[in-house]
Amino acid sequence: MTCFFSMKRIAACLLSAGLLAPVGSAFAMGLLEAYNAALQNDPIYRSAIHDNEAGRENRNLGRANLLPNLSINYSGSKNWAETTAPDGFGGFSTTRPTYISSTGGLTLRQPLYSPDGIARYREGLAQGDYSDAQFSARQQELVTRLVSAYVDALFAVDYVNLAVAQRDTLIEQRQANDRMFKEGEGTKTDMLETQAKLDLSEAQLIEAQDSRATNLQALAAIVGHDISQLDGISDNFQAKPLQPSGFEEWKARALQHNPEIQAQRIAVEISQQEVNKNRAGHLPHVDFLASVTKDKADTIDTYTTDSNVRSVGVQVTIPIYSGGSVSASIRQASATHEKAKTDLEDKTNQILLDLHKQHSATLSSLPKIDALVKSVNSAKLLVAATRQSIKGGIRVNLDLLNAEQQLYTAQRDLAQARYGYLVADLKLRSDAGVLSVDDLHNIAGYFVATK
């Protein structure tokens, strides 16, 4: 099983995260800083750590079923007795002794043949492996959840910046319309068209600001800090070709390495050991016993006597009938085992479906981003050409407004496509079970500190 992040490396990240600002403060944060903070503060991840710690103890619990069981016991009491016995002269005599009795013992029990103990041992090992696989999945899930929240927040910030730029451009256009109208060169229609676009842009800006606040708060919940600024996407953004490109290769990786599939396979093994454990209810159980017992005044007849007894032996327990509970538990465990196999098939199908989705999204992102870059450049040229055409009387105000809207839309779509590519590539690797800390560093390389 390949873990995304070793415990030593987690400790190193937590050490570096100790340099971060206290919870509740707002500051600028890059992607790697956000990840280090999430390792320390994300409640879902911290819960997964404790859950894994608890799950690993199943190995020790299972092993205990095959190891010796040593116990010590002691009891003591004060007794007031009354005995009546023949006195040898044809009568009876009564005595009333008062004495202290005590019993102490040390007992060792070692299973020699324990089918249910063996099943419990194997089940405990499988449960420990299941916990590790689940934790590996939670480690990778933290990365994809964090990056998704980070780019969602960053896109929301970009959306606000674009909305502000669009609004400011429309304000300038309205002012130009007003001047031209006063000079007798513009029309009332031009003024109304620009004002309508400006009003719409104001509404879009308010919506963008609400989205920014919500997404920044979602990110803050993961990293444990309020955030004032994020690293921006690099101007030299260049999507990398997917390697390997074929889906079948990614599918093979997922079937072999995906921790959720591995966990569900282990769940099948756990359910099989449950079947074996319940079947052991029909089988004999053999224990080796050794004990040392010391009795003082054990009974009224021996209240003046002390005894020490050492014994060794073998105890054989053969179940015969328990009201049908064993047979019922076997049927119940067998049904659960079949359910686990069905759940494995369902989980595998879900993972492969999402794998195919992310694979297609990653491959299509490259030509999509290239096309949108060209679209943004073309839209910029169109705005400049339209401004010149208006001066020559070829174009009208509405043409310029439409050209500016086209540029705004192209810039927004380009930003969204770039962020979508990063998330799809990361989720693809997570579905394949090969996501590593190096992939996080590669993603971080697409961002630069905002000036």
Total domain modules = 2
Q: Kindly provide the radius of gyration, computed on alpha-carbon positions and rounded to a whole number of angstroms.
A: 38 Å
CATH topology of the largest domain: Outer membrane efflux proteins (OEP)
Helical element count?
10
CATH architecture of the largest domain, by name, is Up-down Bundle
Q: What order do the strands of the largest sheet run in, or round the barrel if closed?
A: 2-5-8-9
Distance between the termini: 42 Å
Q: Assign the CATH superfamily of the largest domain.
A: Outer membrane efflux proteins (OEP)
The percent range for strand residues is: 15-25%
Sheet of most strands: 4 strands, antiparallel
Shape: elongated
Structural class: alpha+beta
Range of helix content:
55-70%
Instruction: Give the low-confidence spans.
Output: 1-25
List its traits.
451 residues; alpha+beta; Outer membrane efflux proteins (OEP); four-stranded antiparallel beta sheet; 10 helices; 10 strands
